[in-house]
Amino acid sequence: MNRASRWVYVPLVLGAVAMLFPLWWMVALSLETAERAGAATVGAGGMVLWPDDAQWSNYPEALAQVGSERWTGFLDAMANSIVVTVVTVVATILSSSLVGFGFARMRFRGRGPLFTLMLATMMLPPQVTMIPLFLLFRGLGWVDSLLPLIVPAFFGNAFFIFMFRQFIAQIPEALFEAARIDGCSVLGLWWRILLPMCMPVVAITAVFTFIFVWNDFMSPLIYLHSDDQATLAVALNAFRNQYGGLEAVHYLMAVSVVTMLPCILLFFVAQKQLVDGLGKGAVKG
Amino acid sequence: MATVELKGIGKVYEGGVRAVQDVNLAVADGEFVVLVGPSGCGKSTTLRMVAGLEEITEGSLTIDGRLVNDVPPRDRDIAMVFQNYALYPHMSVRQNLSFGLERRRSYGSAIRRLVDSGYRAKARGEDGEIAARVADAAQTLGITPYLDRKPRALSGGQRQRVAVGRALVRDPKVFLFDEPLSNLDAKLRMETRTELKALHRQTRATMMYVTHDQEEAMTLGDRLVVMKDGVVQQCADPVTIYERPANRFVASFVGTPTMNFIEGEVRGDTFRAPSVELRMDPTGPRVSGPVVLGIRPDRLRPAGAGTGRLRAQLRVLEHLGDRVDLALMLDCGTPLVCRTAPGAHLREGEPIDLDLDPADLHFFAADEQGLRLA
């Protein structure tokens, strides 16, 4: 490495520190006592960067207080988040790859205009469809259930359909023909040949969908009203409203750390696939 | 094994582009038929119609007497080897070989296998059968050591063997090959060609093979179908195709170097062109009027000065080791090629006399079709 290229790392390191600092501060505060955390939040006790005496008990105490009933609120919210996220991830992968396969390989009248129309839906801000969708789900009687959060995933996601379509289009046609001769039906071809070959795109879809759905606050807030239906994001917000004062900052931070932990872990696990997949999706070859 | 019969087969794409026209061909049981022609002649389209990968827009196709025009590829009991191998990259060689058999299992339900012990026993029997067939095919093609590798860990030649193995293991009625050797280097191509021929001798399977390489076609095929612009030009055994080409296209396409052509006229028993006068075989068939004369390069022989039937200028001499190609020019400006044995003392730029046997002359009509006259 030459001297000039070494300097490139200076802004990169500064940027990384700037991005990681709030995360670090959140973890540090979550392990503090109520007094020190409250004082640090308003700047009275100086900045807390390393707890002198880590209060690990903050975590069980904070989680137990999520929701109206001890422990039940947190466990319900965690279960709801897991159900919504897992089902949505699986459904998005299946539906988006199937539709992407159709756009890439099936010849049918209106394929081009339909694909353009589907891409155009990506331009719509979610705020535009919020009220019509709410009315639709209310009409179906789905409000205050997990269905409005789960069912749309079975109809594909325009961005991931686009990614699958681009990836599938570069797979040699002979492979599909060989599979047809070998006895695959169209669905068998998709399941046995295509999905395993699209693993990089599947990984991207899984990670992005997971992060988005796990952190999604707006949709659960709109559709879920009962405490026992809340996802973690909504429960965290209710917790903030309930313990928003300076005396419970350490609890709020502890719950926040637990809420974001799965996303961080997932990113570390899927990092290689993710970076690999982004490259493969972008460049034909 | 089976017979394949194409009756008036044609292919017209949307928009009216015609790729194949009125192909009539009966492939006998155990026969090796090669479709050969230049790029865009319709040979691959014809093969793909037999495979069921292209819709047949005209005519009828029967395999073993059963009309299969509208039968999907998986139900035609055919196997196909593709130019770019088309191996499933996420599967091992073993899985690639067994994939087609797995799709055709009689006892393939995973759920019934779990809950029904009788079914499970039959399924296990079938597992053993599939494993044995995969092992047999791998043994035949010498790919046993690679069975657990992924295709990306194989060389081009090994991949092509796996592709052939995938066809072989299914024991289909008809084998289809779509330019399977095109991606291999020259040496490997010749070796694989020999192995394919041996495999055909061993299995006596019905095979249809597409290539643009006339040498490959001549060495492999029991019968050749020469195509041009979607139309069959000639369908015959390799020797007939070479010795009695049906028209100028076939004559020029088959044989290396390509056949020499001289435009001229036949009067009586003599062929005349501006700088050529050749007495024809008196016992041969009679032709007259404007014709195109064809002579194979290997039927021309350098002769002693003043003793030959043709005289030309030697422009370029190409040594090919066991033979020499002479690029010649007649006085009238018509180019000729002569393939001969090395050893003759020839020098570029000097005139050379050539001799030939009148029985080796081919005559074609001087019109666009250029049909064989005699």
TrEMBL record, chain A:
Keyword Cell division: no
Predominant place of localization: membrane
One BP annotation, GO: transmembrane transport
Sorted UniProt keywords: Cell membrane, Membrane, Transmembrane, Transmembrane helix, Transport
All residue ranges annotated as the ABC transmembrane type-1 domain in the record: 78-270
InterPro entries (alphabetical): MetI-like, MetI-like_sf
Annotated membrane topology: Multi-pass membrane protein
Transmembrane regions listed in the UniProt entry: 7-27, 82-103, 115-137, 149-168, 189-214, 248-270
Localization per Swiss-Prot or TrEMBL: Cell membrane
GO cellular-component term (any): plasma membrane
Record Gene3D superfamilies: MetI-like (1.10.3720.10)
PANTHER family named in the record: ABC TRANSPORTER PERMEASE PROTEIN MG189-RELATED-RELATED, SN-GLYCEROL-3-PHOSPHATE TRANSPORT SYSTEM PERMEASE PROTEIN UGPE
Family: Belongs to the binding-protein-dependent transport system permease family.
Name of this protein: sn-glycerol-3-phosphate transport system permease protein UgpE
Protein's organism: Engelhardtia mirabilis
UniProtKB/TrEMBL annotation, chain B:
Alphabetical list of PANTHER family matching this protein: MALTODEXTRIN IMPORT ATP-BINDING PROTEIN MSMX, OSMOPROTECTIVE COMPOUNDS UPTAKE ATP-BINDING PROTEIN GGTA
Organism annotation: Engelhardtia mirabilis
Keyword Nucleotide-binding: yes
GO biological-process terms attached to the record: carbohydrate transport
Ranges that cross the membrane: none
Top-rank lineage group of the source organism: Bacteria
GO MF terms, alphabetically ordered: ABC-type transporter activity; ATP binding; ATP hydrolysis activity
Keywords, ordered alphabetically: ATP-binding, Nucleotide-binding, Transport
Annotated protein name in UniProt: sn-glycerol-3-phosphate import ATP-binding protein UgpC
Pfam families for the chain: ABC_tran, TOBE_2
One GO cellular component term: ATP-binding cassette (ABC) transporter complex, substrate-binding subunit-containing
Lineage per the UniProt record: Bacteria, Pseudomonadati, Planctomycetota, Planctomycetia, Planctomycetia incertae sedis
InterPro entries reported for this sequence: AAA+_ATPase, ABC_transporter-like_ATP-bd, ABC_transporter-like_CS, ABC_transpr_MalK-like, ABC_transpr_MalK/UgpC-like, Mo/tungstate-bd_C_term_dom, NA-bd_OB-fold, P-loop_NTPase
Alphabetical list of SMART domains matching this protein: AAA
Residue ranges of domain ABC transporter in the record: 4-254
UniProt-listed PROSITE patterns: ABC_TRANSPORTER_1, ABC_TRANSPORTER_2
